[in-house]
């Protein structure tokens, strides 16, 4: 699998690389560490050549460290609008997955970028949660980004495709598919439908299905805590006028409130 790791090279942003490292060498085939110089967002100061020189040195250093532990890694620095540039690079290198960090409700620029990226992405985006502990930024969890994933399934027309795409996430061994129903009748119907869909899937090794009633975000977050999963997978809903992609309210709440990684798996 070819992964694009996006970092603003801050202490919080660098943790996206630690998340990839935690997956182990066999999970990803190729790794590109990307820093985007967007002058509308940049707060570091200095001339563009000086910023590019510093960022190139940093991404090269990080890529060298990853190569030293067995990864095929390269560093890359681009200048331009951050979200559009990430999409361009992902398309150019054929990335299967985009990884970045998010600090929840902290208001960090990188967190807002994660929302905008997820709203327009045509490939899975994994957002690893980080938080400040004392004077340091830390990942919320020190395990692999994957292994056990809780997938929120909405039973729209793309539900089976969504489950299959989640099932192909790298290193996934245990998938828990959860539908949050509006009433008991829907809950019982969804269990049967989830079971039939799971029976047709070739991977991962273990698939569980369940259905609950309640608020979808609250139920997913509660079950994620109860089961101590590595990540929560959802399909972002896009709403907007005049072709403007906007992240759905459920996905936005999940990015803000989840205390673990969230992977947004687009339709199609």
SSE series: EHEHEHEHEEEHEHEHEHE
Number of domains in the coordinates? 2
The major beta sheet can be summarized as: 11 strands, mixed
Helix content: 25-40%
Distance between the termini: 19 Å
Which CATH C-level class of the largest domain is it? Answer: Alpha Beta
The CATH topology assignment of the largest domain is Rossmann fold
Rounded mean pLDDT score: 82
Verbal overview:
This protein is α/β, with parallel strands linked by helices. Helices cover 37% and strands 26% of the residues. The chain folds into two domains: 138 residues, Rossmann fold; 117 residues, HUPs (Rossmann fold). The protein is built from eight helices and eleven strands. Strands 1, 2, 3, 4, 5, 6, 7, 8, 9, 10 and 11 form an eleven-stranded mixed beta sheet that branches. It is elongated and about 60 Å long.
